[in-house]
Amino acid sequence: MDTFYISHGSPTLSIDDSLPARHFLQAWKDKVFAEKPNSILVISGHWETHFPTVNVVNGRNDTIHDFYGFPNKMYQLKYPAPGAPELAKRVKELLIGSGFKRVDEDKKRGLDHGAWVPLMLMYPEANIPVCQLSVQLDKDGTHHYNIGKALAPLKEEGVLIIGSGSATHNLRALNGSGPDSISQWALEFDTWLKDALLEGRHEDVNHYEEKAPHAKMAHPWPDHFYPLHVAMGAAGKDVKAELIHHSWSYGALSYASYRFNSAS
């Protein structure tokens, strides 16, 4: 099973039909990934903890509306996907077995919008169990790549692994420009990332702070980028990356999304 990095961009992806990324995700089962997974693991840029943490939910996941100042109808949206407690325990088992000394469990947390917004478009029936895994802002890309490597066996167990973030994510630098007028720094970082992934330069991506142009401008905080490292690491050996969607909004917010597959 392939792994994926989805740029979920703005929370308005949940309601705004003018966003090409919305239509890309709505066509997911028809055009991208027809196989139905038995469960889904989402690494979201909206869950930050000091140690890797999984949500162990029995019953339905709560829908967390972790955004502010948006239209009221967005706060009425629900995505009551079942929890995946067995997957959560398996994730913890794999991480500890790979040398991560501490993995925490959260038995109350539901799905943040980095998980439920794309999933409600990809799998609107909300009938596939979902587990979330957090990111660690005090660690680096290699740490998250190694988390992904530890989780690679899940691909053979029917688990769809999705990293959910944004290829560029500087909310203070967004503007009203149209898709034909993209900030130069965002374009250069986004192009570098595409080239590095498609050419298999994983170590460059792991050390993007030193290797990429405008890295700090594109990601003042790494929360929305680390999910990519997990997805890339989880793909396994001899990884090939494919750009499966690309669009922009607000002049600097890239919706670039990638598929990772391995020959071994």
From TrEMBL:
GO molecular function: ferrous iron binding; oxidoreductase activity, acting on single donors with incorporation of molecular oxygen, incorporation of two atoms of oxygen; zinc ion binding
Cofactor: Zn(2+)
Metal-binding as UniProt keyword: yes
CDD domains on file: 45_DOPA_Dioxygenase
Residue ranges constituting the Extradiol ring-cleavage dioxygenase class III enzyme subunit B domain according to the UniProt record: 3-260
UniProt keyword Protein transport, yes or no: no
Keyword set, alphabetical order: Dioxygenase, Metal-binding, Oxidoreductase, Zinc
InterPro entries tied to this protein: Extradiol_dOase_DODA, Xdiol_dOase_suB
Coiled-coil segments on the chain, per record: none
Family to which the UniProt record says this protein belongs: Belongs to the DODA-type extradiol aromatic ring-opening dioxygenase family.
Name of the molecule in the record: Extradiol ring-cleavage dioxygenase class III enzyme subunit B domain-containing protein
Organism: Acer negundo (Box elder)
